[in-house]
What does this fold into?
Amino acid sequence: GAGVSQSPSNKVTEKGKDVELRCDPISGHTALYWYRQSLGQGLEFLIYFQGNSAPDKSGLPSDRFSAERTGGSVSTLTIQRTQQEDSAVYLCASSARSDYFVAHNEQFFGPGTRLTVL
Amino acid sequence: AQSVAQPEDQVNVAEGNPLTVKCTYSVSGNPYLFWYVQYPNRGLQFLLKYITGDNLVKGSYGFEAEFNKSQTSFHLKKPSALVSDSALYFCAVSSLGGGGFKTIFGAGTRLFVKA
It folds into this structure.
């Protein structure tokens, strides 16, 4: 079956421009996560969607970052007025359960979007 | 506060030798522990997890990990390393606490296996 897909795979933009990154989770997965990975570094949690609950936005680094998830499926991460420090690989992941046992479930990652801000 | 530490940025091992990639954690509730691997130019893949039960868990590609509650560790091991195991490995911990569900990833350990 299809895995998590992300688009675009690469995005080059100029400082100050807005960008939108898209994530299509695995069908039926109710939990969706966004992470940021700087070159050769670990994963920085950004935001977590769980079913119809309010998202956990505690990892968003500034108010320039926002995300939404429409219809409980596709998610879009938007970065406004991009800065050079926003350059990174943005990873999306999904997992199967949105109830109490969500902590038990492994996450399935997409290939990422490599964002370069010039 | 919840945290994960991978004390080694890099581990070097010769092919055929056993390998260990270390991970320690700190959580306020029950820990749910995971290992993921990131091969060059590929996405992260799940390797194995500990939820409850037997402290030794087995996963993909011949990897295993041992949960040690007293030492708050979850080290990844493989009896005989392959060159193809060279990759970036991440330990992660999930927990359900007063702040709800959280998953934290370690900084990653780069494994180099030499032929």
About this structure: The mean pLDDT of chain B is 92. Chain B has no helices and twelve strands. The radius of gyration of chain B is 14 Å.
